[in-house]
Each structure stands twice: as C-alpha cells, then as structure tokens.
Here is the input.
Amino acid sequence: MKHLFLISILFIISCGSTEDLAVDGGSTTTDWLIPPGEVFDGGPGKDGIPSVDNPNFDTVAEAGFINPRRLVVGVVHNGIAKAYPHNILDWHEIVNDEIGDLSYALTYCPLTGTAVSWDRMVNGTKTTFGVSGKLYNTNLMPYDRGTDSYWSQLRLDCVNGELTGTTINTLQAIETDWETWVASYPNTLIMNEDTGIDRNYENYPYGDYRTNNANIIFPVSPMDTRLPAKERVLAIIENGDNKVYSINLFSTGKVFEERLNDKDVLVFGSNANNYMVAYENNDFVGFRSLINSFPAIAEDEDGNRVSLSGEIISGPRQGEQLEPVESIIGYYFSLAAFYPGIEIYE
Here is the structure.
C-alpha cells in the first residue's frame, strides 16, 4: 500500500503564500527568479522522494529478461553506456552517478515526463542533488546539497539561493526503450532495483497519469492545447528558436534537416524504435534513416553511419562525433509551458 499512500500525498496541493516560500537555507521570496506564488509544495517534502546516491548496476546478462518496451534513459561517456529504467526513476527522480571522471545527476520528472542530465561540478565544486519537494509548472525542482540552492529542471538554471542565475551544464540523456538501447549498446550497464530503499518498482505510482490528457495534478501556465497534453515530443531549445517534434512524425524512421538559431540541425527519430535525438550537422549530406541496423540509426550519401549517441561508427569519417543540440523529450504540455509559443513541426 506504500505506492497508494504516495499517490494520496501527491494529490495534496498546498500553495503557500509568498511568506511561506523561504527555503531551508534562509533565502526569501525576493530571491526567486520565478513567481513564488507559482511554486507549489508537492506533498512529500524535502527528500521525501529519496534520490539514489549510490546506484548499483547489472550487465545485460545479469539483468535477465526486461520488457523490451520498457523506457530507459541512457548516458554514454568515453565508450561506457549506462541505462536508467523509468520504473525506478518514477520513484526516485534523481540519480547521482559517475562515469570515470564525469560526475552527473540524472534528473527525471514523472509529472512532465522529462529527463535532463547535468554536470555535478558547479562553479568548480562537486555536489549532489536531491528532490526539494517543490514544483514549478508541475515540474521537478532539485536542490543542490552544497549550497541548498533550488533549481528548475526545465528552465535549466538555478532559481533560488546562493547560486541563483547559474545555468545548468547539461549532458546528453537519450530516452528510448530497452530493446533499442541494448541493440545499440550491448555492453551497457543497467541500474538495478538495489537502491537501498523499499519500493515496489513494478507498480507505477501515478494511476492513469501517463495516458489521461485531462489529468494534470498541479497548475500549469500557459496551458497550450495545440497538441494533446501528454503527447511525447522532442523539444529543441536553441536560444528562443525552439521547436517540438512529435514521436508520431517518425513512423519506422525519419531524418529531418532544420535551420535553427543559425545552426544546421539533424533530427533523427523512430516511433517504432522509440527514440528521438538531435545534433548539429557538420557538413554531412543526405542522411537517411536505417531500419533495424543498430548500432547505426542513419547513413549519409558518403556511407557514414551514425549511432544513437551521435558517433560516426563507420564510413570515411569514422570516429567523428556529432555535437548534441539542447533537446529534451517530455509531455507536450510541459515543454510548451516553459517555452511559450514554441513552434510545432508540421
């Protein structure tokens, strides 16, 4: 019954007055970069949803059977791939992890369906992040344990505390299903359920939330209704030149070429294989999608093949790395609220 109890807590909306919004470190409402009256208490309180600070991992062989359509968020660094299953992230929202010398926080908000990974080195100091219990536009607000400052996941910056105004140094987070991820990275590690916290990870804690477009628990402004609220989209965030692409556009696989913020951008996606990724185009010509040719997802006119993480894995330019553009997968309503007027790819 623990998951039912958590649902009940999450449905309690306690919008405090501005006087109530001083954070634990002593910052007052005048320090907020966002309207303090739009910051809501999600219910469980600070660290009431516990981050995973010492994640444990299995190899593919150790993991055994996993539903091939289970969504994961993947990180690749220096040839090492790690996957973080949605069903664990639903209960913890933040994982503090490392690959070699890279320390990062993998943040996931189940209410907006958004995963963002960022560097835990902030202003030269390594920190960890926890779940503050507060929400802005129904989106996760982590806090850093070094300064107790509050951050906005989808604004990509610090909005309250000592580090106010500091922008997030994001790292690429790739959301797809387990079948596609393991086909792309057969040597991947996958975070297991040994989190040190008692949860039934096979139970989704939010009822019909993922599929019910009318079920928005906390206030959102503006509420953009041009697409269904829970439609899964990729949002490219390019200094005001912002655009969203629905997963439904990609069929078995497509490549879109765009010009955004004076950058040539490649958007690769497949509805059938459940991925959308975006990169700067560095003079590649005529990319076409490849179907079930993992680890390659596309090939250009010169025979260069690219992987899910943007590496040219074969062809004349083998070894080159496409530069990711700032992009986030999530529910349409959430990206449209944080980036009002965002263009929709037709």
In short: The chain has two domains: 2-190, 232-344. Confidence is low (pLDDT under 50) at residues 1-20, 22-29. The first strand starts at residue 39 and ends at 41.
